[in-house]
Queue: 2 jobs
Job 1
Amino acid sequence: MSLDTFLSSSSTTTKRPRRLTFSRPAKRLFFLGLLVAGVITLFMTLNSRGNWDFVIPFRGTKILALVLVSYAVAVSTVLFQTVSGNRILAPSIMGFDALYVLIQTVLVFALGAHAASTLNPQLRFVMEVAIMVLFAGLLYRWLFGRTRRSLHLLLLVGIIFGVLFRSMAGMMQRLIDPNEFAVLQDMLFASFNSFDRNLLWVSAALIVGGSVVLWRIGHTFDILALGRETAVNLGLNFQRTVTIILIVIAIFVSVSTALVGPVTFFGLLVANLAYQVAGTYKHRWILPFAVGLSILFLVGGQMVVESLFSFNTSLSIVVEFLGGIVFIVLLIRGVGR
Amino acid sequence: MFDTYQKQLGIAVLAIIGLTILSIFIGVSDVTPEKLFANSDDGRTLQVLLISRIPRTLAILLAGGSMALVGMIMQILARNRFVEPSTAGTVESAGLGLLVVTVLAPEMPIFGKMLVASLFALMGTFLFLRILRSIPLRSVLVVPLVGIVLGGVIGAITTFFAYRLDLLQSLNAWLTGSFAGILSGRYELLWISLVLMIAAYIAADRFTVAGMGQDFTTNLGLNYNRVMTLGLIIVSMVTAVVVVTVGMIPFLGLIVPNVVRQMQGDNVRRTAPWVIVIGAGFVLVCDMIGRVIRFPYEIPIGVVVGVVGSILFLFMLLRKDAHVA
């Protein structure tokens, strides 16, 4: 019943000399904030042709969705890595978001397509999140709980769980009558180009709620990063803290997957970049850096997709490509040891 | 007269023949032995049998047997029991090749498309082996991990271009393994995989030796690189043939050889027939499940094997001694 297995290698990767030590994190964070403000302004105004009555609400909700997703992915990944004590695991790599898609599908399957499409979307969303928290909790307790398991085994098992959940969702979607399925397709396949506007406010509420919980236990993050033994020695209720964090992570992953669909490697990308750029290992710096970078990339990326490719590609494909390469590089460098 | 090995193999082959016959009589159109001989419907039943059912069943046997066999060859050559075409970027590379040739030369005959896909599969596999060489191999599990993610990266390239060219739906239809579209005239390419299986069986002892490592192989007077190249060409061509005609069948080449290894050990000449027989039988059963579970609709084999295969793979990984091997 302990999480120590996957906490064993926590502080081994911190020895690389940092190049950016000339400046303090606050300065860099300020600069990042300026960049984020710039990219958001650009997103709101680019090619708007003065039609503000339409542009502001339309792009405003879009920005809100992107910011929510950025925040959810960045925070959940950084905390997942803190709890698991390494730099390469991420909720989405461990199959969290595939699990959410599976839950969505099973719910539609259980309720019947008609009932599911007439059900209040917010209510359905909250139900899905509740089931997600339950199952994600059970699954990861089981994976990380019992015997000692190597990090590579966990990674591989997580990826295969992702394949399993995706295949099961695919199978269920085909078990639904094809005619009924057509009705549900939009509900099940959110993407950056067509996110679900119905869920925006519920998502925002969930994110704020989760953040309040995290804020209250925020002082424990740096202690958790020291590893299980040290944290317990320092008087932390380790089991309880980790459980709370895993629940919030499950909620955040549900929110981002419900809004824009699964994105496997994005969290890994921004978290590792945040460690590099922040130049510190304190969470009060790393978390804002990760969130800022995440917003910068998602909003900037979506802008490039919309204006440069005129919607003719999807941001998640590009993220998958770059993130996969970064993942392999991390493995080669031995970060995942 | 027969030793135990031959007897057991014989029983397995008989079981497969039984399943084959069963498979032929499952489907939307009502085909039964009585109807076949009743001669009352102007040979319509016979037509369904010859045009759809028998080609489909043959395709299943050929694809299942050959994918399982190349999985084993890859495991021996890479000296890692978690490697197979879908955990090494081979399948995704073949898919990319198929997309490229379909876009650039849509008129090319299917055989030519297959060759291009083989070439891409070969390059993808070489890239995988190249990356592996630069990784400090501390754990056997890193190898499939890198392979799966490499496959994802190559898959993202394919999806990127398919999305831009509005081919995403067709691409998904091609690449999700399914025998639903198999008709007489659309599966014959798979006979190439039979030829390749025979070639692999002839070279079986060389693969066994190569699996013992470069120095050992060279000591025995074999050209290690040549054996490796031969093996990879067989792997790439079989993968390409199956991807072009049927689509992706994930984890097949991983599950079957590992089950057989538990029973029969590591000698390729001994295990190869078993791997082929069990591979064919596994796909046959999965395909029947896919056809029956949502009758009269059909669930593609790629999805069924995705579920069954990933459960078996997880089981292999999480068994107590899994990481020792």
Job 2
Amino acid sequence: MPLFDSLYNFAHWLTRNREEAEDLVQETYAKALRGFGSFHPGTNFRAWIFRILRNTFLTSRTGLAASRTVPLETSNDQEQATAISHETPESILLEQAGQQQIQTALEQVPVIFLEVLLLCDVEEMSYQEIADTLAVPIGTVMSRLYRARKALRAALESKMREAKHA
Amino acid sequence: MLDDNWRPKLDQYLDSELSAEDMRGMDAHLRECAACASEALRRLQLKRATHLAGQRYAPSAEFRRRIERQAAARNRPRRILLLVPVLAAAMLLLASVVTLGRWYERTRSQQVLAELADIHVADLASPTPADVVSSDRHTVKPWFQGKLPFTFDLPELEATGYKLVGGRIAYLEHEPGAHLLYDVGAHHISVFIFRDRPEIERVFPARDSSRRVLSFHVESWAAGGLRYFVFGDASLESIRGLSRLLKQAGA
């Protein structure tokens, strides 16, 4: 099955639940098989099937709930991305963070930002592929990516501070 | 102190999204700017850590099998659907072949019967319709010995209303056979006996059949490797009566 492991991993991150992730992947493959005629050879298959999964997730109960809890994006997100600095003393602790701590921090990232981060840093998609998958402009991809990393960094630093004071 | 010109491009640099020219420019800057180099290293470490930590969930083997079964089940009808035009074409071809075959068989059987009808009519019009003229089957049957590659039995006709007139050699599609002449009332009946061949069997598939050709009644059957045709303008019952006698004699 093409991209099976990647799709499942992505689905599990989105749903935070094994059963829901399995349902999501299963429905994604079913939709992909039914709608394979709509896939244009030569275009990005990975973006196409990830888009199916992501759109299916958004219409699920978990997806709808997640979308309701996401902060609204502002038009100057990209400007913010160029203006915020993270030179905090805690930042040096990032290097010492273990994998489990990073995973816990990733769980704190809102879904709308987490999905961009996963597609970029885990699936190693280009900005254009992410834009195709999410059906948003590249500028929005960059903005969300910035905010995702910012949120991850904040969550991680918080965890590190807690660990340090414990 | 981070450089305000380059720092905003650090993420794009690490994500390999800068243009080639900007990539070269960033490389050069990072070699000279310790602050930006340190920040780039920190972001790169986070990116790598995210890459590893993000690969957190793996599907179970059972789930993988379930999806594979699902895909296989969906693929089967797809393959069948793909075959629909091929099957339709094959069915059309088969129907055409069958129709053509039936038309050919009907045409061939009509040709055979028409040929026999010609022989029957020609013999009746001939001043010497039989080469062996006798009402005695024990005279007529031996006359064919050595002339045909097969032998046959003739029925006893006493008190049946049928009378053996005689016989001669006939040819059906270049194959020799026996042509026996009978009378019933004022009607003449021809009995043809040939070796049953596949090409004849194919156009007369039923072991017993009744037909009407050019107002003649025809009974045909195969028995003992021989093909019989009883042909005449007598009533169908008369044709069938003689046929029954011939069948009993050959049984």
